[in-house]
Amino acid sequence: MSKKGLYATAAGTVACALAIGYVMQETGEMPGTRSAPVLAPAPVEQATLAPQHGVNDLDLDGISLTSAPNTPDLGDLLDPIVGLAAFNPKIPAQDMPGLETPQLGCEVSANAAPAPMASVALSIDAPCNRNQRVTIHHTGMMVTETTDEDGALSATFPALSPKAVFIVEFEDGMGTVVTADVPELKEFDRVVLQWQGDSGFQIHAREFGAAYGTPGHVWSGDRAQADAGGAVMQLGARDTLTPYLAEVYTYPTGSSQRDGSVALTVEAEVTEVNCGRDIAAQTIELRGGMSPQTQDLVLSMPDCAARGDFLVLNNLLDDLKIAAK
After folding, report:
1. 50, 53, 176, 250 — which has fewest CB within 10 A?
2. Superkingdom of the source (predicted)?
3. How far is CA 261 from the centre of its chain?
4. Which string of DSSP letters, residue by residue, matches 255-311?
């Protein structure tokens, strides 16, 4: 994907404490998704700069980030509200229902099995929850999926803990908990970008100096990802109302054959439904076998005249440093 014809724009972001920069790409080269943002923080100032040629990273005073406390280990808490309260603090934990006692014949069951790239394959059986939304909680990550006409669901999720705990929660309060051991997780670096409502967010990785649109540029629009060491996985049912969605980039650090770095960026397309509004997201980073670290982001989108353009946040995520093994 070409990055020609970029021009800079200043837009406000609130919720943290490191200055970052971003640029806005003119339309057409990356198919984004349309979304309905659900968070509406206090407005922030927005200013527009004159068009420029090339990519110009800006350090903007109106954009700031802080590191949130370490994401709690759901393996210890086993609380279906932990991830939800962390990602959406406007919902008090005490107001959220726990998992209900099932009626006879309506038990929810789940199995977890190891999957490639330090992932877990979940199989859920909920005979009384057919064609229904279900939220999967895992170490601060939240994803909305839907069951089929038999109340079944099969999906693969990247693990964020070697002792991976997945909480399955239906809207009627029914649910269950399932666990899996993922000891190979220490061999991978992983970055999660998650949000609610299809807000047009994307995560991009450019491995070892790769340019946009060349081998080594890894994102969800490159379905093959054949020449890349890492991979991006999309999670969540985008055809449901304001779902919890995520994109996850994973690199096999422990088996890398190359030295260098992976440049990571977060991008957001300006769409008809998010233009002129504030959209929110959260990142969860798992590097070098350390505990997950989170950051929250609230971004003020340009007005609707910029529909089809992309905001590119260059300094939100630190580059991955890779050493050959």
Report:
1. 50
2. Bacteria
3. 21
4. G----EEEEEEEEEE--TTTTTSEEEEEEEEE-TTPPPEEEEEEEEPP-GGGTT-EE
Token couple for 320:
């991955």
Cα dist from 124 to 110, 133, 235, whole Å: 4, 12, 16
Residue-wise pLDDT for 52-99, tens only, equals 333 333 333 434 444 444 444 434 434 333 444 444 434 433 334 455
CA angle 87, 88, 92 (to 5 degrees): 125
Alpha-helical segments (H) within the chain = 74-77, 82-87
How far does Cα 303 stand from its chain's mean position?
A: 24
pTM of the model: 0.72
Secondary structure of the chain: what % helix, strand, coil (to 5)? Answer: 5, 40, 55
Bigger pLDDT: 2 vs 123: 123
Give the single-character DSSP code of 254: G
Distances (CA, A) of 55 to 58, 65, 132, 290: 10, 22, 44, 33
Give the fold, CATH level 3, of 74-89+105-183: Immunoglobulin-like (2.60.40)
CA dihedral 221, 227, 229, 235 (to 10 degrees): 20
Q: How far apart are CA 193 and CA 141, in angstroms?
A: 9
How far is it, in rounded angstroms, from Cα 3 to Cα 118? 32
Distance CA 78, CA 165 (A): 8
Q: Any bridge partners for residue 112, and if so which?
A: 122
Other beta carbons within 10 angstroms of residue 13's beta carbon come to: 25
Indicate the domain borders of the chain: 6-68+185-322, 74-89+105-183
> 136 with 142: CB under 8 angstroms?
yes
